[in-house]
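Let us work through a complete example step by step.
Step 1: write down the sequence.
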Amino acid sequence: MSLPFLKMHGLGNDFVVLDARRSALVLSPAQVRAVADRRTGVGCDQLIVLEPGATPGADVFMRIYNPDGSEAGACGNATRCVASLVSEEESGGPVGIQTIAGLLKARPTGGGGYEVDMGPARLDWREIPLAGPADTLRLDVEAGPLSAPCAVNMGNPHAVFFVEDADAVDLAAWGPRIEHHPAFPDRTNVEIVQVLGPELIRMRVWERGAGITRACGSGACAALVAAARRGLTGRRATVRLDGGDLEITWREDGHVLMAGPTALAFRGTLAAELLAV
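Step 2: predict the structure and record it as C-alpha coordinates.
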Protein backbone atom coordinates (compact mmCIF):
# COMPACT_ATOMS: atom_id res chain seq x y z
CA MET A 1 0.00 0.00 0.00
CA SER A 2 1.08 3.60 -0.54
CA LEU A 3 2.09 5.73 2.47
CA PRO A 4 1.57 9.46 3.01
CA PHE A 5 4.62 11.41 4.19
CA LEU A 6 5.81 14.88 5.07
CA LYS A 7 9.09 16.37 3.86
CA MET A 8 10.49 18.68 6.57
CA HIS A 9 13.80 20.31 7.36
CA GLY A 10 15.66 22.22 10.02
CA LEU A 11 18.28 24.51 8.43
CA GLY A 12 18.43 22.26 5.38
CA ASN A 13 18.91 19.08 7.42
CA ASP A 14 15.99 17.27 5.74
CA PHE A 15 13.66 14.48 6.79
CA VAL A 16 10.94 12.23 5.46
CA VAL A 17 8.37 11.89 8.26
CA LEU A 18 5.96 8.93 8.39
CA ASP A 19 3.11 8.76 10.91
CA ALA A 20 2.67 5.27 12.38
CA ARG A 21 0.81 6.28 15.54
CA ARG A 22 -2.45 4.62 14.43
CA SER A 23 -1.09 1.81 12.29
CA ALA A 24 2.19 0.04 13.04
CA LEU A 25 4.92 0.35 10.45
CA VAL A 26 8.06 -1.78 10.27
CA LEU A 27 10.66 -0.75 7.69
CA SER A 28 13.58 -2.84 6.57
CA PRO A 29 17.01 -1.24 6.03
CA ALA A 30 16.48 -1.74 2.28
CA GLN A 31 13.19 0.18 2.40
CA VAL A 32 14.78 3.02 4.35
CA ARG A 33 17.58 3.23 1.80
CA ALA A 34 15.04 3.28 -1.05
CA VAL A 35 13.10 6.20 0.43
CA ALA A 36 16.28 8.13 1.35
CA ASP A 37 17.81 7.82 -2.13
CA ARG A 38 17.85 11.32 -3.65
CA ARG A 39 17.66 10.06 -7.24
CA THR A 40 15.15 7.21 -7.13
CA GLY A 41 13.34 7.91 -3.84
CA VAL A 42 12.30 11.05 -1.97
CA GLY A 43 15.72 11.82 -0.54
CA CYS A 44 16.55 12.77 3.04
CA ASP A 45 19.29 12.97 5.66
CA GLN A 46 17.13 10.91 8.03
CA LEU A 47 13.83 9.06 7.84
CA ILE A 48 11.56 9.64 10.85
CA VAL A 49 8.75 7.34 11.96
CA LEU A 50 6.26 8.63 14.54
CA GLU A 51 4.96 5.96 16.93
CA PRO A 52 2.74 6.15 20.04
CA GLY A 53 4.50 7.44 23.15
CA ALA A 54 5.12 4.60 25.60
CA THR A 55 6.32 6.39 28.76
CA PRO A 56 4.79 9.04 31.05
CA GLY A 57 5.22 12.52 29.58
CA ALA A 58 5.78 11.25 26.02
CA ASP A 59 3.35 12.62 23.45
CA VAL A 60 5.05 10.64 20.69
CA PHE A 61 7.89 8.20 20.09
CA MET A 62 10.30 9.32 17.36
CA ARG A 63 12.21 6.54 15.56
CA ILE A 64 15.19 7.78 13.56
CA TYR A 65 16.75 6.02 10.58
CA ASN A 66 19.94 7.06 8.80
CA PRO A 67 19.93 6.88 4.98
CA ASP A 68 22.12 3.77 5.12
CA GLY A 69 19.29 1.97 6.94
CA SER A 70 20.84 2.04 10.42
CA GLU A 71 18.93 3.40 13.41
CA ALA A 72 20.08 6.55 15.22
CA GLY A 73 19.54 7.54 18.83
CA ALA A 74 19.23 11.30 18.44
CA CYS A 75 18.62 14.02 15.86
CA GLY A 76 18.16 17.54 17.15
CA ASN A 77 16.81 19.12 13.97
CA ALA A 78 14.32 16.28 13.50
CA THR A 79 13.23 16.66 17.13
CA ARG A 80 12.33 20.30 16.47
CA CYS A 81 10.39 19.31 13.33
CA VAL A 82 8.47 16.62 15.17
CA ALA A 83 7.86 19.03 18.05
CA SER A 84 6.27 21.48 15.62
CA LEU A 85 3.87 18.80 14.31
CA VAL A 86 2.84 17.48 17.70
CA SER A 87 2.65 20.92 19.33
CA GLU A 88 0.24 22.12 16.66
CA GLU A 89 -1.94 19.08 17.41
CA GLU A 90 -1.80 19.96 21.13
CA SER A 91 -2.87 23.62 20.75
CA GLY A 92 0.65 24.98 20.49
CA GLY A 93 2.03 23.95 23.87
CA PRO A 94 5.16 22.13 25.01
CA VAL A 95 5.55 18.46 24.07
CA GLY A 96 7.49 15.38 25.16
CA ILE A 97 9.27 13.36 22.47
CA GLN A 98 10.51 9.88 23.35
CA THR A 99 13.54 8.42 21.53
CA ILE A 100 15.67 5.35 22.08
CA ALA A 101 18.12 7.70 23.83
CA GLY A 102 15.53 9.12 26.26
CA LEU A 103 12.68 11.61 26.65
CA LEU A 104 13.19 15.09 25.19
CA LYS A 105 11.11 18.14 26.11
CA ALA A 106 10.41 20.80 23.49
CA ARG A 107 8.58 24.12 23.45
CA PRO A 108 7.67 26.69 20.78
CA THR A 109 9.68 29.93 20.77
CA GLY A 110 7.62 31.79 18.16
CA GLY A 111 7.94 32.32 14.43
CA GLY A 112 8.14 28.60 13.70
CA GLY A 113 11.07 28.10 16.04
CA TYR A 114 11.37 25.47 18.77
CA GLU A 115 13.69 24.88 21.70
CA VAL A 116 14.57 21.32 22.72
CA ASP A 117 16.12 20.16 25.97
CA MET A 118 18.51 17.59 24.52
CA GLY A 119 19.27 16.16 27.95
CA PRO A 120 22.65 16.05 29.69
CA ALA A 121 25.91 15.93 27.78
CA ARG A 122 27.59 12.61 28.54
CA LEU A 123 31.35 12.86 28.86
CA ASP A 124 32.63 9.60 30.34
CA TRP A 125 34.50 7.36 27.89
CA ARG A 126 32.06 4.52 28.56
CA GLU A 127 29.12 6.75 27.62
CA ILE A 128 30.52 7.91 24.26
CA PRO A 129 31.31 4.95 23.89
CA LEU A 130 35.05 4.55 23.27
CA ALA A 131 36.95 1.33 22.72
CA GLY A 132 38.90 1.82 25.95
CA PRO A 133 39.65 4.24 28.83
CA ALA A 134 40.58 7.72 27.60
CA ASP A 135 40.37 11.39 28.50
CA THR A 136 37.38 12.55 26.45
CA LEU A 137 38.63 16.15 26.54
CA ARG A 138 41.47 15.27 24.16
CA LEU A 139 41.51 11.89 22.42
CA ASP A 140 44.53 10.30 20.79
CA VAL A 141 42.78 10.17 17.42
CA GLU A 142 43.93 11.74 14.18
CA ALA A 143 43.36 11.63 10.44
CA GLY A 144 45.20 13.96 8.07
CA PRO A 145 44.96 17.53 9.41
CA LEU A 146 42.53 16.52 12.18
CA SER A 147 43.74 15.50 15.62
CA ALA A 148 42.97 15.43 19.35
CA PRO A 149 39.15 15.66 19.25
CA CYS A 150 36.91 16.17 22.24
CA ALA A 151 34.33 13.38 22.59
CA VAL A 152 30.72 14.08 23.63
CA ASN A 153 27.61 11.94 23.65
CA MET A 154 24.32 13.78 23.03
CA GLY A 155 22.23 10.63 22.67
CA ASN A 156 24.69 9.69 19.91
CA PRO A 157 28.52 9.87 19.76
CA HIS A 158 30.43 12.92 18.52
CA ALA A 159 34.10 13.65 17.87
CA VAL A 160 34.67 17.43 17.83
CA PHE A 161 37.83 18.69 16.11
CA PHE A 162 39.02 22.29 16.52
CA VAL A 163 40.68 23.88 13.49
CA GLU A 164 41.76 27.35 12.32
CA ASP A 165 39.60 27.26 9.18
CA ALA A 166 36.61 24.90 9.14
CA ASP A 167 35.87 25.54 5.47
CA ALA A 168 39.39 24.53 4.41
CA VAL A 169 39.05 20.96 5.72
CA ASP A 170 38.28 18.25 3.14
CA LEU A 171 35.42 16.79 5.18
CA ALA A 172 34.44 14.31 2.46
CA ALA A 173 37.90 12.76 2.67
CA TRP A 174 38.47 12.71 6.43
CA GLY A 175 34.91 12.39 7.77
CA PRO A 176 34.43 8.71 6.89
CA ARG A 177 37.85 7.79 8.24
CA ILE A 178 37.02 9.31 11.62
CA GLU A 179 33.50 7.84 11.60
CA HIS A 180 34.97 4.34 11.29
CA HIS A 181 38.04 4.89 13.50
CA PRO A 182 38.64 1.91 15.83
CA ALA A 183 38.43 4.23 18.85
CA PHE A 184 34.65 4.42 18.25
CA PRO A 185 33.06 0.94 18.38
CA ASP A 186 29.62 2.37 17.46
CA ARG A 187 31.13 4.75 14.87
CA THR A 188 30.84 8.50 15.46
CA ASN A 189 29.57 11.79 14.09
CA VAL A 190 32.37 14.19 13.15
CA GLU A 191 32.30 17.94 13.81
CA ILE A 192 34.86 20.39 12.38
CA VAL A 193 34.76 23.51 14.55
CA GLN A 194 36.27 26.95 14.22
CA VAL A 195 35.77 29.26 17.19
CA LEU A 196 35.04 32.76 15.87
CA GLY A 197 34.45 34.36 19.26
CA PRO A 198 33.36 33.61 22.83
CA GLU A 199 29.72 33.35 21.65
CA LEU A 200 30.10 32.29 18.00
CA ILE A 201 31.16 28.93 16.55
CA ARG A 202 31.45 27.86 12.90
CA MET A 203 30.77 24.15 12.43
CA ARG A 204 30.66 21.64 9.59
CA VAL A 205 29.52 18.08 10.10
CA TRP A 206 29.92 14.55 8.80
CA GLU A 207 26.99 12.56 10.18
CA ARG A 208 27.33 8.91 11.06
CA GLY A 209 25.49 6.91 8.42
CA ALA A 210 24.55 10.00 6.40
CA GLY A 211 27.72 11.83 5.36
CA ILE A 212 27.97 15.61 4.99
CA THR A 213 24.76 17.43 5.93
CA ARG A 214 23.90 21.13 6.06
CA ALA A 215 23.12 21.04 9.78
CA CYS A 216 23.18 18.71 12.79
CA GLY A 217 21.42 19.71 16.00
CA SER A 218 23.04 17.15 18.29
CA GLY A 219 26.38 17.99 16.66
CA ALA A 220 25.90 21.69 17.39
CA CYS A 221 25.22 20.79 21.03
CA ALA A 222 28.38 18.65 21.14
CA ALA A 223 30.41 21.47 19.56
CA LEU A 224 29.35 24.00 22.20
CA VAL A 225 30.00 21.56 25.06
CA ALA A 226 33.43 20.72 23.66
CA ALA A 227 34.33 24.39 23.15
CA ALA A 228 33.22 25.29 26.66
CA ARG A 229 35.19 22.38 28.14
CA ARG A 230 38.29 23.59 26.33
CA GLY A 231 37.74 27.12 27.65
CA LEU A 232 37.26 28.51 24.14
CA THR A 233 33.70 29.79 24.70
CA GLY A 234 31.23 30.28 27.49
CA ARG A 235 28.29 27.97 28.04
CA ARG A 236 26.08 29.74 25.49
CA ALA A 237 26.85 30.40 21.83
CA THR A 238 25.49 30.65 18.31
CA VAL A 239 26.59 27.70 16.20
CA ARG A 240 26.81 28.67 12.53
CA LEU A 241 26.18 25.72 10.20
CA ASP A 242 26.05 25.48 6.40
CA GLY A 243 22.25 25.73 6.62
CA GLY A 244 22.01 28.52 9.21
CA ASP A 245 22.31 29.23 12.93
CA LEU A 246 21.34 27.35 16.07
CA GLU A 247 21.38 28.80 19.57
CA ILE A 248 22.95 26.39 22.07
CA THR A 249 23.08 26.66 25.87
CA TRP A 250 24.88 24.24 28.21
CA ARG A 251 23.15 24.72 31.53
CA GLU A 252 24.89 24.34 34.87
CA ASP A 253 22.85 21.18 35.54
CA GLY A 254 24.47 19.56 32.49
CA HIS A 255 21.45 19.74 30.18
CA VAL A 256 21.93 21.22 26.71
CA LEU A 257 19.25 23.42 25.11
CA MET A 258 19.04 23.82 21.34
CA ALA A 259 16.85 26.42 19.63
CA GLY A 260 16.22 26.96 15.93
CA PRO A 261 13.70 27.03 13.06
CA THR A 262 11.63 24.30 11.43
CA ALA A 263 10.00 24.10 8.01
CA LEU A 264 7.50 21.94 6.13
CA ALA A 265 8.63 21.59 2.51
CA PHE A 266 5.82 19.47 1.04
CA ARG A 267 3.43 16.56 1.49
CA GLY A 268 3.42 13.47 -0.66
CA THR A 269 2.75 9.76 -0.96
CA LEU A 270 5.29 6.93 -1.13
CA ALA A 271 4.36 4.59 -3.97
CA ALA A 272 3.99 0.92 -3.07
CA GLU A 273 6.58 0.09 -5.72
CA LEU A 274 9.22 2.14 -3.87
CA LEU A 275 8.80 0.00 -0.76
CA ALA A 276 8.77 -3.32 -2.65
CA VAL A 277 12.48 -3.97 -2.07
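Step 3: interpret the result. The helical segments are 29-36, 76-89, 171-179, 217-229, 272-275.
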